[in-house]
């Protein structure tokens, strides 16, 4: 029985005041908002937290690349080509041109992360805007945007990319723009779906009855309610963009020398695969780790937002076991 | 006599039914079909009927939350459906709505003070501080603890949320409020608290209510006059007490007799209506109630009755109203 | 006194929430006689649905656990049974009807198939026999032209019709006890009247006992032989329907009846209200659970929880006001849990 006593004690809800008292009003304190509750759950998820720490390390390294990297990543030193890891000051050795691999990885992370985050931000912004307008207004606006998305999806992205690079040259800004322009459609569909659902909520009608304009309803009322799935989608998109950039650079369609990215490093390594296979392993590992970290974070946010927690089920099983021990 | 604040003239609201590849309109759901009514300043007009009768749609059309297919609605002398969007948004200061669902009608991501303060933010030039003070005042008026204004709606009980909705509705001191099933979702003990609150506010602020509900006892308590709707038509309008005591339309009589009364000793003589409400997409000819009416005669399926005054203060749309000479006789029913 | 079909004693049910164990029902005791109707009346959150789920032992699937008590159905304690054993009782000797008829039916089967399946499951009937009987059942619950209706899908029927189908399925196994959880709440009043009439007819014809759960005092007055009023997880008053309505005793019952606006007499005045709100189940006050809202509260009410005190023939209330009238009964064991 003693187990039960302990378990009965906690309250479900604080008692509600019976009636407003006319006591002087203390300044009302803000309770934990939804974000704080999400953080509480998120921070208890070991995968998500590991992902977050790893990503933070990569971001810091990218920002302070100059301080972290021991060598100039573009400096060719034929005397010291293909050194083994740990030879001299070269932590991970050197490549076929004698460039320091570690330094190259560090500088590459700049480009990769930059591309990943910029693409995600632009695509999410564009996708949310179009999805929101499409979902809220419906009708012919919706039809036009949805057909546009159908067209966008059926265009071969690789082909467009080659075309754009050929016409405008291979600058990073074009790469980012072209990747963003081909990946906003998913977000737009997601947000549109959310809005189709949310616009039927009664508080939307209440806002309209109050005299709130359509834009006010979209941006102040609805976007706030759709923000959780948008954020989950954005995190996952960062990983996708990093992979796309690597893929394109590997094919020689992305970032060009002397700039460097993990994709370019991979691409270069293929000729020397037999001599020094580690040339491919390092950048590949970096891509893998960052994309995994970002996905873990995304999954972590999604789980934190999901009211049906797995955790409570685990606790229930434990509690049931204790309970059967207590003899009822 | 007080002047008419709301005048609804021959309002129709049809929802087109689309079908086929070309999205052709193949028919209409006649949610509201040629309804007129007036609401006097300071009174509560109760609107009753079963689900699908069009009472909620009518309430929304009156506030132009939905456009009317035909007809006009005048509130305080201005035709609501003739206003531009800008004028309409301005006019929303004067007309407000309280919803049924205390859970869905408050944005879950807004703090309570933002919910109540939103109309003030839009329609007034009050500073943040002034709005906060007004929110505190409003929360006190509706019986909420103002120290909880920085909380989210989900932290409140159903009755308290309904109070939040009421505070939002009265924030701009409107003249006219549509209460759409405002107490229907609440438990009995909470319901009586909210009814008392609405009546108190009406007295203090001189509000005019359109009180839409299916709870007939609640409507009787709060309304001065009552309108009964069936399949998009107004079938009876009258002063509350006489309408409840002597219903003229057989549908009103059936509706009133169908409600289980909380006293086991009074076994009522009930008119049990056969069948279900027909579809509003394809309403019966003549009187729409004739398919279920225990008193239906041949004329009822052919000629549509008009709403007309048969007794002082009592209007009914029936060829053979109960208790009127030449009308239907309750005592001839078997049950 | 007639034979008891179901007797529940000291039933206490708990739910695991994020913040620990919360008792949803607290030492519920009730009995249903053969061929009679017991109405469980209460507001939302009073634990009336949990009680019905506990009797069906469906609570095991909802993170709930029966902590204490017995559920005696025809001489067998359902609390001690395993889920596999219960399956033969559930939907067979005890059937259930829910509030929302639409979601209780499977949209991809015709209503006839659904009734027939239930018949074949519990009575090993052949396909043809089951179909014929399904049509008979539809006729019995008052569905016109049942041969045609049986071949229709739930979405082709109205809410009232669907509820009739659900009742037909529930009756397919010729249950001895029918648990109806707010069966008419989702329906319009004229349809509600039809369904209530149907339930009353069936009860008289088939001799089925009914446990009717409702929040509507009017429905209870009409249908019940006995009434149990629930408040915050406990039955605070129970008795025959005449006793409860002619002599309501517990201040909560009295308040509940007084807060309902009537159909006769004065209108427009201030309605009676029970002050305050229902306490959260995890945060009940000490002593009587109604004491913070009670107009007659005494010192004793704030300290000791009252047990059932007899106030009339087959009429009990958990209220210290009647201590002198009846035998004073302090609430059963386990009171210290509330301390």
Task: Please explain how this structure is put together.
The complex is a heterotrimer of chains A (328), B (335) and C (339). Helices cover 70% and strands 0% of the residues of chain A. In chain A, helix 5 runs antiparallel to helix 6 (139-154). The radius of gyration of chain A is 26 Å and the shape is elongated. Chain A contains 13 helices and no strands. Chain A has 328 residues and is mainly α. Chain B is 30% helix and 24% strand. Chain B has helices at 55-62, 85-91, 112-123, 128-141, 158-170, 188-205, 216-222, 240-245, 250-258, 298-302; strands spanning 4-19, 24-40, 44-48, 70-75, 78-79, 95-98, 176-180, 208-212, 225-230, 233-239, 308-311, 314-316. An 8-stranded mixed sheet of chain B has the order 6-7-8-3-9-10-12-11, with helices on both faces. In chain B, a hairpin with a 2-residue loop joins strand 9 and strand 10 (233-239). Chain B is globular. Chain C is α/β, with parallel strands linked by helices. Chain C has 12 helices and 12 strands. Chain C has helices at 48-55, 83-87, 101-104, 111-123, 127-140, 146-149, 159-172, 189-206, 217-223, 241-246, 251-259, 299-303; strands at 4-17, 20-33, 37-41, 64-73, 76-77, 94-97, 177-181, 209-214, 226-231, 234-240, 309-312, 315-317. An 8-stranded mixed sheet of chain C has the order 6-7-8-3-9-10-12-11, with helices on both faces. In chain C, strands 2-1-4-5 form a 4-stranded antiparallel sheet. In chain C, helix 8 (189-206) links the parallel strand 7 (177-181) and strand 8 (209-214). In chain C, helix 4 (111-123) packs across helix 5 (127-140) and helix 4 (111-123) packs parallel to helix 7 (159-172). The two termini of chain C are 38 Å apart. The chains are: A mainly alpha (328), B alpha/beta (335), C alpha/beta (339). Chains in contact: A-B, A-C, B-C. The B-C interface holds B 50-51, 157-160, 187-193, 195-196, 199, 214, 216-218, 220-222, 240-241, 244, 254-265, 270, 272-273, 275-277 and C 43-44, 144, 158, 160-161, 188-194, 196-197, 215-224, 241-242, 245-246, 255-257, 259-263, 267-268, 270-274, 277-278. Chain B: Residues 6-256 form the ABC transporter domain. Chain B: GO terms for molecular function: ATP binding. Chain B: Keywords: ATP-binding, Nucleotide-binding, Transport. Chain B: It comes from Paenibacillus cookii. Chain B: InterPro entries: AAA+_ATPase, ABC_transp_ATP-bind, ABC_transporter-like_ATP-bd, ABC_transporter-like_CS, Oligopep_ABC_C, P-loop_NTPase. Chain A: It is found in: Cell membrane.
